[in-house]
Write a structure and sequence with these properties.
The chain is α+β, with helices and mostly antiparallel strands. About 20% of the residues lie in helices and about 25% in strands. The chain binds uracil (URA).
Length: about 240
């Protein structure tokens, strides 16, 4: 791999910015300063440092975002503000996209990545990856709603996959619903079928990960190594 590609991926910057960093003499490979952007390195074995700090190569980026209301889960949109616009500019050329969609008014856990294979696994119905939503409705959930969710709710002429509804005993118009698929407006339509309107919807868990409580709405962070492992191995068929 060319050194400028390595630096561009490891430092999340453009190739030309990477070339600038290399030419400025800040990069060492195996202890030797290298100033040529086309110098060849091995991303698995070369010891590459920036200003003396060892860099870690990662082919892909994985981000956990606490999506706020009012932004759409898209890479670009002619009218609306997108979740990508919440990231710094140097991330915008990295091919990131949201792994799955949350409605404009839904908040909570959203994963952004440029790892298409991992995203496909998280989203494919084949893998039954779990997604948990906290929901607040305009009317209380009833015990029979639990059973109806477990049986599957008729939407689009077929039953949804069985889903688990837990009612908050203190506030019965609140609860959590676990889905293993992702139909359009699925939670809102399930609740609609049960005779309720959703007033607030937050995704709290996705693919084995829980929303980091230290992230405020609109904030994001990189996933840790162990979270990436969990994400990659989530789903029943893994
Ligand atoms: N179900 C919905 O209705 N909306 C979402 O954003 C996610 C799941």
């Amino acid at each position: 791999m060319r050194l400028d590609k390595y630096i561009s991926d490891a430092c999340i910057c453009s190739r030309s910015q990477a070339a600038g960093i290399i030419r400025s003499g800040k990069i060492t490979v195996g202890g030797n300063t290298i100033t040529k952007p086309d110098y060849k390195v091995n991303e698995k074995s070369s010891e590459i440092s920036l200003d003396g700090n060892l860099l870690k190569y990662s082919e892909f980026i994985y981000i956990m975002m606490n999506k706020p209301q009012g932004v759409v889960s898209a890479t670009d949109d002619p009218r609306e503000k997108t979740v990508l616009s919440l990231l710094p500019e140097n991330y915008l050329s990295k091919g990131l996209f949201p792994a799955g969609r949350l409605d404009k008014d839904t908040v909570g856990l959203l994963i952004l990545t440029n790892d298409g294979k991992a995203a496909h696994k998280m989203l494919s119905p084949k893998y039954h990856v779990e997604k948990t939503y906290f929901v607040e409705c305009d009317a209380p959930f009833l015990e029979k709603d639990i059973e109806m969710c477990a049986q599957g709710i008729p939407l689009d002429g077929e039953l949804t996959k069985p889903c688990i509804l837990k009612i908050d005993p203190e506030h019965r118009n609140r609860g959590s619903i676990v889905l293993t698929e992702g139909k359009y407006h699925e939670i809102k339509r399930i609740c609609g079928y049960l005779g309720k309107k959703v007033l607030f919807l937050e995704r709290t868990d996705f693919a084995g990960l829980s929303l980091d409580p230290s992230l405020s709405r609109g904030e994001w962070r990189h996933l840790t190594e162990s979270e990436i492992y969990i994400l990659r191995h989530s789903g029943a068929n893994n």
